[in-house]
Amino acid sequence: MIKLYAFPFIFLWMVFFGTQSNAQFTLSGEVRPRAELNNGQFVPLPDSVSPSFDVSQRTRLSFAYKAPKVEMRVAFQDIRNWGYSTQLGTNRFTLLYEGWGKINFSSKTGLIIGRQKMSYDNERVLGTVGWRQSGLTHDGLLFQFRDTSSNWSLDLGAVYHFPVDSTTVANYSFVPNHRTFQFFWLNKKWKKLNLSILGMNLAWQNFNNPKQMRFTLMGGFYLNYTTEKWRLEADAYFQGGKNRAGQDLSAYMAGVNVSYMPTDALGLNLGIDLLSGTDATSSNMNRNNDFSPFFGVNHRYYGHIDWFYVGNTTVRQGLFDAYLVLKYTVKNWNFRVAYHGFLSPNTLSTTVGRFQLLGQEIDLAFKYKIHKWVTLSGGYSHVFATENIQYYKPLNGNYTLSNNGWAWLMLTFKGDFLTVALGKK
pTM for the full model? Predict the structure, then answer.
């Protein structure tokens, strides 16, 4: 069996002894430690529990080979919290982040096979989830069509997950992952307008009957219209079929935001998001209205303290989020201030009606570019919650609902160590 550490040397041998003309090899890496002080991230923190401090780290090493007919990329990563692994290295956390090959049939079409990133538009429902140290990649096939003359693009993708023992019909053990999904993405760009349509079919395995699949269908659009100082973005998606629990599903989400940049340094963004949920007074146990942004970058959209749609991509009561973002850039510094007002679009109980305030969040963040390869970033988020949050988050004990905060500081080293042109020019 080939050891993990042997793959980089095999890859280098393929590059230098089996190259096509006009090929290029790139070796790149990333080291990203992040310190976090948690006083209520993900869930409200009880008064009896002290804040926690932790440092996590992502370390990646990537090998890329690009030629006119063939492309390859292999990326390994090590994800760990400081101190979780012994100094002798007996605990191993290294895994394959990307491992794919691409065949270019022509200048317009190609097929990517293997573990790969799948990211589209504003990453509302399908993105790389780059904030998480592990990121998000998929095992599957991706056919691509790109016509730069007409600005049409088409992707057809299929992902399939096998049980450990693929010779029998067995449960896929990585709950709550999907067993398979297929999707298409169609995009057209004009001078100021960018429009995309995305459709997806996800299959969840019934753990009580491994031969039975439950299918969730999703479809929607994304558009943005950009002028010199203004930008309008809108997206909407609908979900139907069955959810992973086997209930009839009818759910939707819609969002719109407007950005204004009076100068190159200053930007203002105002928007709203609405994600459907199930009314608490509903007596139909076979029907569900909870929208799930399956593979979306939810940390970016629904508040940095991650009370909604992070960890669990379904929020039973849905969410209405009105937000205002201010951005300012000066030299190597970037600053961001965001306000979120969270409300429930559905009835929370027999005595609590719709559109009740759940809480308000303030997010502060900065980024400083120290070097071409080195960036320092950090921030602080604070939530002023109301009693209504108990319908979303379990509150067991005494809580100071206005005292939920989270601070972070991250240093990112990222760059290309080596770029070599191979073959004839």
Answer: 0.89
